[in-house]
Design the sequence.
C-alpha cells in the first residue's frame, strides 16, 4: 500500500507508531473534604511517529517541512489507517550520508522520525 502525507507519495516501508491521546483532568475538593476529579479524554489527539530508515529523500523531507511551516492539517494515508494530522516535529531527520553539497543530490536519503498529532 502506498503511503501518502499531504499528497506526497512516500515509501511503503515507513513505519507508523501510534501513541495514546492526551488526557486532561481537574481536581477540586468539596466543602466536606471529598476530592472530585473530572477527566476529559479529548484534550489533543494521539501522537503519531512516522519513521524512515533511509526510505525518504531529502526532497520529500523539504516538502514535508514546508507543510509543517504552513501549520495546516494534512492527510496521512498509511496501512494502519487514514488520519488528519499536524506535522509538529521533523528535527530528528538526518542525512544518511555526509556529502559536500547535499542539496545538489535529489536522491539523497534521510532517516529519523517525523512527529504528527492527530486533529
Sequence:
Amino acid at each position: 500500500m502506498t503511503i501518502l502525507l499531504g499528497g506526497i507519495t512516500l515509501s511503503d516501508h515507513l513505519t507508523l507508531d501510534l501513541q495514546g491521546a492526551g488526557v486532561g483532568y481537574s481536581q477540586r475538593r468539596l466543602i466536606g473534604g471529598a476530592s472530585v476529579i473530572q477527566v476529559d479524554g479529548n484534550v489533543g489527539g494521539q501522537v503519531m511517529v512516522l519513521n524512515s530508515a533511509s526510505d525518504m529523500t531529502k526532497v520529500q523531507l523539504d516538502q514535508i517541512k514546508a507543510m509543517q511551516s504552513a501549520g495546516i492539517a494534512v492527510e496521512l494515508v498509511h496501512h494502519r489507517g487514514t488520519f488528519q494530522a499536524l506535522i509538529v516535529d521533523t528535527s530528528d531527520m538526518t542525512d544518511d550520508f555526509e556529502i559536500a553539497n547535499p542539496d545538489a543530490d535529489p536522491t539523497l536519503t534521510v532517516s529519523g522520525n517525523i512527529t504528527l498529532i492527530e486533529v
